[in-house]
Amino acid sequence: MSGPFRNTIRIVDPVCETGTESKKNLSIELLPDGFVFSLLDVDAFRYIALEAYKQEHNGHISHYLKHLGGFMKDNSLLNQPFERISVSCYSPQLVIVPNDLYRHDDQEALFGFCASFQPKHHLRADILNIMQSRAIYAVPDEVISFCEEHMPGYRLRHHGSVLIESVMAALTIENWHTDMVLHVKPRHFDVMILEKNKLLYFHSFEIQCFDDLLYYLFYVLKQYEMQAAKLKLVLMGEMAMDSDNFNVLRSFFGEVRFPERNDMYRYSTDFENVPYHFYFNLLNLDSCG
Hints:
- 28% of the residues lie in helices and 34% in strands.
- The chain contains eight helices and 15 strands.
């Protein structure tokens, strides 16, 4: 039973269907247009399930949360105990503050210096260990209430925190060499500019079409006086290698590539049929923080 949600992908290892009792971690992303979750077999350190759902009518995260609780009760993969629950939530604003400047009591002032604080939201701060910083963001009250009711013991992180931490870890551990990271979703995209493996810029832009993405992307490049043809780009998110949009980006940049799969984990066989870069954030959420 999916209610107002439309299933777009389903990967379920046979071990999930046999009733085998194994310890599992749940990772779930709450996005503006729907949600996606994965299950990790803790003992085998192996991803065994992934499902993605779009809400039938465009709205906001808070619009579909009232249906998500019932969905979780009816979904056999979600209606079970978990060792750990990691939640990633989208919000358009993220303010990064070095640890030396961060004070919890000044959180609202630090956030308000760079972004607008909306009513019925709750401020939180993620720890970015590699950068020795805090990432401050606002979460709708409905998200907090939902997680407390349906996912006790959950860990919550901003989608941008997950992206930044995962990319910075890959730069260090996997020896990435890139100037820019582009993380594309249907209704928003995130851009990171890197200089000598240091984060120079991060921002999330809400979009309605691919032309919006190009407009904002080249606006950012202009501010930093950077030429796309001289840059190496790592592309992730919902963009297929054989798509027209990918070919457009490849024509602008000096080099465009997709990230390789995180070999810290193992993966069920069916994960071979899904482009890893589509779910980069989700499949790295468990290791963040």
